[in-house]
């Protein structure tokens, strides 16, 4: 499990753990449009198995975003007197907007790893 999380964080191919999925070196510090390799440069594993394959990654992205929103709320509400202060909402919005670039790449990586053993 920890090895899989490491491979996801390192942007490695789920099949051979050598090739890169995204053209960027690290997807944690990338604020540009997604640039993915179509095939793994090492083992020729096809990342997008069919048209619309990454549609399901949208649900992973949603789960990540909700989780980050909850964690941000739990951290931010420590600094306010009321349990639910409305000033927390812009803080949550800001965090979610900053992390959206990471989330979209991370959700695709998780999606690829979830279905790496299925072939069409
Ligand atoms: Zn590979």
TrEMBL record:
Domain of life: Bacteria
Keywords: Membrane, Transmembrane, Transmembrane helix
Stretches that traverse the bilayer: 53-76, 88-106
One Pfam family recorded for the sequence: DUF983
The protein, known as: DUF983 domain-containing protein
